[in-house]
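Before surveying the methods themselves, let us examine one representative protein, pairing a chain with its fold in token form.
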Amino acid sequence: MTLFESIYRSFGWWVINIDIFFLALLFIGGGFLLIKKKQWGKRFLLISCLGFGFFGVVPIGLWTFEALENRFPKIQQIPSDTKGMILLGGSFDKMTTLARKETAYNLAGGNFIQFVELAKKYPQFQLVFTGTSFEVETAKKEFKALGLDPSSILFEGDSKDTKDNAAKTATLLTPKPEEKWLLVASAYHLPRSVGLFRKAGFKVIPYPLDYHTPGNYETWFFLGLKYNLDGWQVASREWLGMIINFLMGRSDELYPGPV
């Protein structure tokens, strides 16, 4: 890991977990009040309260989340010359799965189920799954349970992140320039993924799945601190990831979109 990446990870953690950042300011402000530093205490408390208030009223988290989900349109017709489908890992909650000894899905669980549906609808496609070794073993079990033969799928199980997914899947498949591959992922995760896979040499057809927003502005949906902080946490990770990928030369596009 380079110095630049180390700085980014440290800075990015606080940006993504903005609620913890404001909570830390709240405690710092309280600490100053306890030691009779009232002026500094009031400043930190004010910044913290304004931060929480801003995210509770202004739906910036869900606006940025929705923008990611709307980046690529739904595919109405998959080209007949498509070579296959690639599914990214990230659908399983590892801690809960290991603790409960049964598969637990997370926010991105929907794309795994919908991938199985697509695989059954298009049996002619080469199927590929890329993720960690844990995800591969869990996926094999779940594919079988959902009626999809794991032996019909190529697995890449040595990836730690989306960057690895793209690079190591390219090594596994050695894609030709004219080959079309359907890239299946949660809609919010597609922009970052597409940039990496294009850079790795894939001619990808982005196939968004597993939506979590209505797709257009609806006032009721955006109300509430929890909704906005949850949206911010997911979306900011994707936006920061796209920025760092572009700056590091891992993607040729800052905000990958339709060709």
Notes: The longest strand covers residues 82-88. The chain has a mean pLDDT of 92. The first helix runs from residue 3 to 16.
